[in-house]
Design brief:
Layout: H1 3-13, H2 19-26, H3 30-38, H4 45-55, H5 59-62, H6 66-74, H7 82-100, E1 110-117, E2 124-135, E3 138-147, E4 156-167, E5 170-177, E6 184-189, E7 199-207, E8 215-226, H8 231-236, E9 239-242, H9 250-255
Antiparallel strand pairs: 1-2, 1-8, 2-3, 2-9, 3-4, 4-5, 5-6, 6-7, 7-8
Helix pairs in contact: 1-6
Length: 271
């Protein structure tokens, strides 16, 4: 019974180190899977779907006569090789970016306050702490949000991890939220044209951190703090502020206003 199916399964399994590895990754116990391999039983429709998704083949293909199935599988990437090929491709893209990035990005290493109008709390300015540092050949960063639900509750911290590249004359930062992993943001900044880094301005794109999850774009300002800070004290200044709050310098408030001039047809960053 199910002669072609069990032979086709054996062929697919041959691309992996062992039957035990396939069973472990599929979440199917070995005795049951052995019955499929021997042709004693045919998997249920749900189990067959899981098997096909794991091996990367179509349900109609796995039921083909064995000789035909061999010819089909022979010209496709081998199931066991796919993760390595994907990893290699990703590494190749990162290597290309490394080669194209400017080496003088080190002048931007250190701590910053980040200011922009909150995407989830309209009319508020969000102040975060950002740290750029070198790890091997790359510059990585952590962005920390300090949020407080009510005045009676202790603040919670949202952390974002990312990578930074100085490409030609713009500084690109891409990060993701590490707790729930449900958001990626990109920030593009003008570099500093002075000997000493003080402030960087640009644009940030992301989604609002609420049930609406609205894609948003906002002007952003990075205020340089130095190579080292007392992190606890720096974080104590972070959080949501009213747009007219005295805790935020007037020049910073002006820099993060999201207005558009009559002759502007795209939302643009401003120096």
């Amino acid at each position: 019974m199910h002669q072609d199916l069990h032979q086709n399964l054996r062929l697919l399994c041959s691309y992996y180190k062992s039957i035990a590895e396939v069973c472990r990754r599929l979440g199917i116990n070995r005795p049951q899977f052995n019955r499929y391999l021997s042709g004693q039983h045919k998997p249920s429709p749900n189990t067959l779907r899981r098997i096909c998704e794991f091996f990367g083949v179509d349900e109609q293909d796995i039921l083909l006569p064995h000789g035909q199935f061999q010819r089909v599988v022979d010209v496709r990437p081998k199931p066991g090789d796919q993760p390595n090929q994907e990893d290699s491709s990703l590494q190749e893209h990162l290597d290309w970016l490394d080669q194209g990035a400017r080496g003088d990005v080190d002048i931007y290493l250190g701590y910053y306050y980040e200011y922009y109008q909150s995407m989830s709390a309209p009319g508020k300015v969000l102040q975060n702490l950002v740290c750029l540092e070198r790890r091997g050949q790359r510059v990585v960063f952590q962005r920390t949000e300090r949020m407080r639900a009510t005045t009676n509750e202790p603040p919670c911290h949202n952390r974002y991890q990312g990578i930074a590249y100085l490409l030609t004359d713009r500084l690109f930062l891409v990060d993701y939220e590490t707790l729930n992993r449900h958001e990626i943001t990109q920030t593009i900044l003008f570099p500093s044209f002075r000997n000493r880094v003080t402030r960087l301005t640009g644009l940030k794109i992301g989604v609002s951190d609420n049930s609406e999850r609205m894609p948003c774009c906002a002007r952003v300002l990075y205020e340089y703090l130095g190579q080292s800070v007392v992190v606890r004290k720096a974080l104590a200044n972070c959080g949501l502020h009213d747009l007219d709050s005295g805790q935020i310098d007037a020049s910073i408030r002006d820099a993060v206003r999201n207005d558009m001039a009559p002759d502007e047809y795209l939302f643009r960053a401003r120096h």
